[in-house]
Amino acid sequence: MIRVKGLSYYAGGKKLLDGISCVIRPGELTVILGPNGAGKSTLLRLLSGERKPDEGQVLFNETVLYSLSPRQLALRRAVLGQQYTMSLPFTCEEVVMMGRYPHYRDQPDSRDHAIVAEALSALGAGHLSRRLFNTLSGGEQQRVQLARVLAQLEEKDVKEAMSRFLLLDEPTANMDYLHQQICLRRAREFCRRGQTVVMVLHDLNLAAQLADRLLVLKEGRLVAEGGPRQLLGVEFIRDVYGLEAKIFYPEPGGFPVVITNLQSC
Amino acid sequence: MKKYGVRGLLILLLIVSLLVAAGMGAMVIRPIQVVAILLNKLGWSVASDSYTPAMSAVLLQIRLPRICLAVLTGSGLAIAGASLQGLFRNPLVDPGLIGISSGASLAAVAVIVLFSVLSPTGGLQGHYLLNLGTFCGACLSSILVFRFSRVEGKTMVATLLLAGLAINALCNALTGLITYTANNEQLRSISFWLMGSLGGATWTTVSSLLPFVVLPVWLLPREGRALNAYALGEMEALHTGVDIRWLKFRILLLATLSVGATVAVCGIIGFVGLIVPHILRSWTGSDHRRLLINSALAGAILLTLADVVSRTVIAPAELPIGIVTALLGTPVFIVLLYKQKKNLYNHNI
User: Which residues 122-161 of A are in CB contact (within 8 Å) with B?
Assistant: First the structure.
């Protein structure tokens, strides 16, 4: 469980995050929404332990996140960023194996190799394993990177099992429709195994389809939180994005579908 | 299979090139004679009628120190090049191109003139003082170029090369300025050493270089895994558990230690750090866990053979070894530049 307490963060004299408090539970897929510049990526950076907050604290299972060493942290959480450029030629297999680095000392064992192969094929990227990473398309690169972070959180045996969390910053940005769905499904499967998953998404419909819980940021503040059915409404979209939209429920009891009005912006 | 085969092959090639280097020159010594001389020297009596005493003297006093110097310099420069490329995340980086060598060289000239340390003939203490000076010079220029070329944790290739150019130009100008104030004796030792040559090899110079190359060659390969993760990006390395500040510090320290010490002894020998990792990458991939140690081996081979070329091709005169490595290295550099250009183009679309 991630417990965020009064988190504030300043950069260049500007308050990027302003007193954010929330609780993110395991097994409950959490999606951060909000317009550009709302502080979504900054919040993710603080949750990853990459930056320290100016005020407030982040606790993971009651341990202060910033008291953990990089390696201890790496065994507990993985992060998928938005974009990767590699100018040194590594194969995809090698890239995914980098996710296993915190787990072994000298040489990866057969279990590590198996985890890498599974992670790649689970994202429909098994055929890419021998290809050089920097020759792939943007969407393929993103899938390989997702395989890497999923491999990082795979435990070696049940003894070392601990609860872990996964942070994804717009994981589907460059992907085609099929692979968007595959990736989000893998993230949800990971979550359903009792782990914590937080992701930033822009697409309200993907968020509605996938999320158990939404955190909505605007101008560095947490303005709303709750389930998609509860939150996504005409008023809400007007408030947060300044857009007119219609909400449909294609299946009774299912997830909402948002259709925006192009004339309203 | 290929991973380990390559290392075995490199060790074999190194032994062969050592025997070739020991045997070639004005006096030809056959490999079997080389082995016999060495065994006798080590105290195992082998029939000594197969070689003349002159052969033994030439091998032990002239060729062997020179070969040792070539091996140390080659492996030191190559492993420094490979690890700096990992740190800058760019295969174009070479200690000579980005100004580290010229920073070291400037410091060496300053030490020679200010402290009157006569590098080729001075004792071990003088050499260590010179090493210290070049290390400081190398450190300073590598920190400068590292700071300059990076924007938000990413290395800007154009800025990197321009910063290297600027540091090279500045260091050369200052070196010229100091040379201008030097007296005759100092001038002779400066110019001897600025040419970039293994000609000054004695057992003293070899032992002055030894610790500064052995240490990086021993310690740098341990950073292989962290450097691999670093290739993903600085933050990504952090996320996979690498202490990045500590990593950067150690790589810069060890790489400049070895570059500084080789410059102190042999002057600037360019492109070794560029060619060797480039060839190995296209052969065995970028994994630094293999690349670094293989680079050290291949660098030793390259410089040993380049030295054979430099002292035999226009014998009895000597071609400066820097010319040989530059002739090999510039085409490689152009190929790399061309590849990067294509990459940049693809990214912009």
Answer: 134, 152
**What residues does A20 pair with on adjacent strands?**
A7
Torsion-angle region of residue B251: left (phi > 0), alpha (psi -120 to 50) or beta? Answer: alpha
**Contact at 8 Å (CB) between B78 and B276?**
yes
Query: What are the pLDDT tens digits along chain B (349 aa)?
Result: 456 688 999 999 999 999 999 988 878 888 888 888 888 888 777 766 678 888 888 888 889 999 999 999 999 999 999 999 998 888 888 888 888 988 998 998 888 888 765 544 556 777 788 888 888 999 899 888 888 887 766 667 778 888 888 999 999 899 888 888 888 877 877 776 776 778 778 888 898 899 999 999 999 999 999 999 999 888 899 999 999 889 988 998 999 999 999 988 888 888 899 889 988 988 888 899 999 999 999 999 999 999 999 888 887 788 888 888 888 888 888 887 787 666 554 443 3
Sequence ranges of the domains in chain A: 2-231, 234-265
Closest CB to A87 among B239, B243, B343:
B343
CATH of the domain spanning B66-348 = 1.10.3470.10
Contacts of B343 in chain A (CB under 8 A): 87, 134
Homologous superfamily assigned to A2-231? P-loop containing nucleotide triphosphate hydrolases (3.40.50.300)
* Chain A contact for B242 (CB, 8 A cutoff): yes
B153 part of contact set with chain A, CB < 8 Å:
no
Q: How many residues does chain B have?
A: 349
Residue B93 structure tokens: 């980086």
Which DSSP helix (H) or strand (E) runs through A192? Answer: helix A177-192
For the whole model, what pTM was predicted? 0.87
Dist. CA B5–CA B39, nearest whole Å: 29
**Residue in chain A lying closest to B235 (CA):** A50
